Amino acid sequence: MNMKPYQEYVFNQRHLLGLTDYSADDIHFVLQNAAYFREVLNRPVPKLPTLRDKTIVNLFYENSTRTRISFELAQKRMGADVVNFSSGSSSVKKGESLKDTIQNIESMKIDMVVVRHESPGVPHFLTRCVDAAIINAGDGAHEHPTQALLDMFSMQQRMGKITGLKVVIIGDILHSRVVRSNIIGLIKLGAEVMICGPKTMMPVFVQEMGVTISHNLEECLAWCDVAMALRIQLERQDQGLFPSMREYHERFGIKMEHLERYPDFVVMHPGPINRGVELASDVADSNRAIILNQVTNGLAVRMAVLYLLSGRMEEG
């Protein structure tokens, strides 16, 4: 096993605001380093002192469980000092602005900020307010770059490649930040992407991103190598975007009969899963699903991103 992360590529990125800003070579390099950190996680003591003198703030203005825990665990596995910020228990409740909040936090001498916010563009705004490296953990329906990176890493791990893969993304395309980052990243790495879902959940812009649109699940599953189901946000049913959860599952849910009919495609989901809506429960638990691998790979990918943006490459 390699004794240190890969360093032969000149990685010039200062932040991770979205995959729009990353070249195909940048993405490949992140995934290459993620493979190293994935090996680290298999060690009896899965820790490295790589970020021992770094201080990282997790600035979450929006509820999150998986992403926040994954980032925090990655940071602690690498020895960083971690500060968790929640808007619900902070001066934000007293009317403090985002700019004042982040500048007050940076005055405490921090090195990196992981931010999640309901408004698109907040990570970009923070780069104009502070000198710390900024990592986007999800901004509105704009981008979620580390989720896309872990998805691509999981595909590469299972399928042996990304170039030439046929990937269908199924569900609420309109409100998903995951789908935008995945489309950008997958197309840059040479995959073909199809999107599938109700017409009421298709954004106007999406065809301009180089994807094929379908509203027929059978057609998509017969075509694809990878089927990624997106979580249907339960509150969307109140907006009349689809008649019922039951009907959504009938039209767009992946069922065991699909696995039997189309024996080759792999099932993915960014989580959390609504069992019986996006995926039948037995599909989620089948050996065709790599959902738990995505979770472990998310930790490795976030360790790689933290390492690459920490400045350690220049020092080493």
The DSSP helix count reads 12
User: What is the H level of CATH, i.e. the homologous superfamily of the largest domain?
Assistant: Aspartate/ornithine carbamoyltransferase
For the biggest β-sheet, the strand order reads: 7-6-5-8-9
CATH topological fold name of the largest domain: Rossmann fold
Number of domains: 2
User: Total number of β-strand segments?
Assistant: 9
Q: What are the segments in which pLDDT stays under 50 over at least 5 consecutive residues?
A: none
Architecture (CATH level 2) name of the largest domain: 3-Layer(aba) Sandwich
Mean pLDDT: 90
Structural class by helix and strand composition: alpha/beta
What percentage of residues falls in helices of 4 or more residues?
Answer: 25-40%
The proportion of strand residues reads 5-15%
Write down the CATH class of the largest domain: Alpha Beta
What summary fits the major beta sheet? 5 strands, parallel
- CA-atom Rg in angstroms: 20 Å
SSE series: HEHEHEHEHEHEEHEHHEHHH
